[in-house]
Amino acid sequence: MKLEASELLERLYEDISCLDEDSQLRLLTLWLHDLRLNHKLFKKTIGILFQSGHRPKRTKAERWMEKQYLRERLGPKGINGLKPRELAEKYLKTARLDLALLPYFTRLARKVKHKVYMRITREYKKDGQTKLHVPVVE
After folding, report:
1. Any domain includes 4
2. What is the pLDDT of residues 7-50, one digit of tens each?
3. Is 115 part of a structural domain of the chain?
């Protein structure tokens, strides 16, 4: 009796889901250790994990990017001086991550920039100012 790959995967998943939590974590750790040897598959797996939305509310990357934008707003060009793609590249170099994750972190930087901009705008409106003053560089 020959089973198809999908049937084998379903049976394997059922067997793994019956294990206790510690055994499942140990199995995952072993699998990830072996996965690192196959670099191409490792990059695809990490990409799927980041795109699936299974992440904490505020990641370390979000906090780091927010700090960078808050520092940048005091600079000569204001918050518009730092582009999301540049910030994403800077974070990938700092965190020593693969460039395959650049699109994910670029989208994240865009969201963070908008969030910081809206927070600054709300602060100005709360203080009674009608417009946000952005310094002009010549």
Report:
1. no
2. 888 888 888 889 899 998 898 888 888 887 888 888 788 777 77
3. yes
Q: How many CB atoms lie within 10 A of CB 48?
A: 10
The pLDDT assigned to 109 comes to 94
Classify residue 65 by burial, with Cβ atoms within 10 Å: 0-12, 13-18, 19+: buried
State which amino acid sits at residue 120.
I
Quick check: is 113 in a domain?
Answer: yes
Domain that holds residue 114: 55-132
User: What is the enclosing helix (H) or strand (E) of 68?
Assistant: helix 60-72
User: Which comes out higher in pLDDT, residue 127 or 66?
Assistant: 66
> Hey, is 137 helix, strand or coil?
coil
From residue 123, alpha-carbon distances to 53, 128, 129 in Å are 30, 9, 9
Looking up tokens 């965190």, which residue turns up?
95
- b vs e for 68-106, b when ≥16 Cβ sit within 10 Å of the residue's Cβ? bbeebbeeeebbeebebeebbbbbbeeeebeeebeebbb
DSSP assignments along 86-105, one per residue: HHHHHHHHHHT--GGGHHHH
